[in-house]
Amino acid sequence: MAEFPAFLSAQDVGSFAYLTVKDRLPQILTKAIDTLHRHKSEFFEKHGKEGVEAEKKAISLLSKLRNELQTDKPITRLADKWVDTDIWNHYLGHERSLLNGSDEEPRWFFSPWLFVECYMYRRIHEAIVQSPPIQDFDVFKESKDESFFESQESIDTLCMHIQQLRPARDFSEDELKDTLFKLLQISLWGNKCDLSLSGGESSSEKTDVINSLEGLMPFILINDTESLWELLSTYKKAAKSSVVRVDIVLDNSGFELVTDLVLADFLLSSELATEIHFHGKTIPWFVSDVTMHDFNWIIEHVRGSNQKFTSTCGAEWENHVKMGRWIYHDHIFWTLPHPYCAMPQVAPDLYTKLQKACLILFKGDLNYRKLMSDRKWEFTFPFHEALCGFHPAPLCSIRTLKCELQVGLQPGQAEQLMAFDPHWLTTGKYGVFQFDGPL
Ligand SMILES: O=P(O)(O)OC[C@@]1(O)O[C@H](CO)[C@@H](O)[C@@H]1O
Ligand SMILES: [Mn+2]
């Protein structure tokens, strides 16, 4: 069997993985510590002295974590008793076994980047769950909410645009396709707004994204949206089955989530789909990723807007949830360090659930890394092969590039991009729609 390429790792000094572990992750931890500090009086008001003690404990655990990271200490077993603790510790054993009995231990600047980065977020969770009574506190909530409020204008423009489109049932075939492509692109560029890339600092959408789409076209490096259209319109025409289910594996809250909900709403109103299943995270993750709480919070806030078009959107979304046309799921697998090709073994129940979809959309960079096992594939390596057998249903990755990993490019394309823009892989300026169709 041909050898697999190595995992991205902070071992590669100067790489994006290295800079993330060296600079960005400590910065995120510092911000989390600061957030806890600033909520001290709130904890006191809610829980009295115990709340303040809990805040101190969580801060000391996070400071210890930051020190371990910055001094490249061995990665230790999780000590909490959460639902996934055993799976994590088992995975840590697996990482250790890969070191072939050498004296090495898994370490921050040595082990696979995907593993250590996920581990850091899981340790943040550990610090919080080990500090009752503040065990439900989300250290990233504040920045997620901020980014939503800062994107308010773009959200209003987007909601007005989609409201003025209706009714989608009267659309011609071309109009349907054209609108689908637009909303897919909006959802793609929505992925620029993640907060882990900016170290938790504000990263909201302030431009009029609809009017920017045309100009952004050249930045889509791979565009398989025609295949998505073909798949969904075939279902629609053939009335092939009474249920056309589209699953969206969500990424970030704030503006990106709104763009995903706008897309999901259109899929229903255009009858390209009959139900949408959303997948989010069980615990706060990579700063801005969507939890169930964020999902409900965003819908509630869009509904509560004083802008008519926006609140109408929110009311319709609320209704989709109430009527069971929109279904939110979470699963611990999404916050484990495993690549998705391991899903059938590690989370067979989730894999079986995804197999019921006609199409799965994977949003964002982290999902891409997990789809691709975070390995250093050649830029021209086929997407399908890099999935290493992961194929619960036809799927499409919708992602702006924020790590040194990209497959499926044309020969020479990467070299050209590199000559033109040496940071093309990591700034979120470029995007892809990469589809792996029915087998
Ligand atoms: O998944 P998302 O929100 O698109 O991106 C998450 C992200 O910012 O986190 C990682 C580095 O910390 C990068 O790979 C990636 O750019
Ligand atoms: Mn994210």
UniProtKB/TrEMBL annotation:
Gene Ontology cellular-component annotations: nucleus
A biological process from GO: methylation
GO terms assigned for molecular function: metal ion binding; phosphatase activity; protein carboxyl O-methyltransferase activity
Listed cofactors: Mn(2+); Ni(2+)
Domain of life: Eukaryota
UniProt-listed Enzyme Commission number(s): 2.1.1.-, 3.1.3.-
Keyword vocabulary terms for this entry: Hydrolase, Manganese, Metal-binding, Methyltransferase, Nickel, S-adenosyl-L-methionine, Transferase
Domain annotation Damage-control phosphatase ARMT1-like metal-binding: ranges: 20-417
Keyword Metal-binding: yes
Catalytic activity: beta-D-fructose 1-phosphate + H2O = D-fructose + phosphate; beta-D-fructose 6-phosphate = dihydroxyacetone + D-glyceraldehyde 3-phosphate; L-glutamyl-[protein] + S-adenosyl-L-methionine = [protein]-L-glutamate 5-O-methyl ester + S-adenosyl-L-homocysteine
Residues in coiled coil: none
InterPro entries named in the record: ARMT-1-like_metal-bd_sf, ARMT1, ARMT1-like_metal-bd
Function comment: Metal-dependent phosphatase that shows phosphatase activity against several substrates, including fructose-1-phosphate and fructose-6-phosphate. Its preference for fructose-1-phosphate, a strong glycating agent that causes DNA damage rather than a canonical yeast metabolite, suggests a damage-control function in hexose phosphate metabolism. Has also been shown to have O-methyltransferase activity that methylates glutamate residues of target proteins to form gamma-glutamyl methyl ester residues. Possibly methylates PCNA, suggesting it is involved in the DNA damage response.
UniProt record similarity statement: Belongs to the damage-control phosphatase family. Sugar phosphate phosphatase III subfamily.
Domain comment (free text): Subfamily III proteins have a conserved RTxK motif about 40-50 residues from the C-terminus; the threonine may be replaced by serine or cysteine.
Identification of the protein by name: Sugar phosphate phosphatase
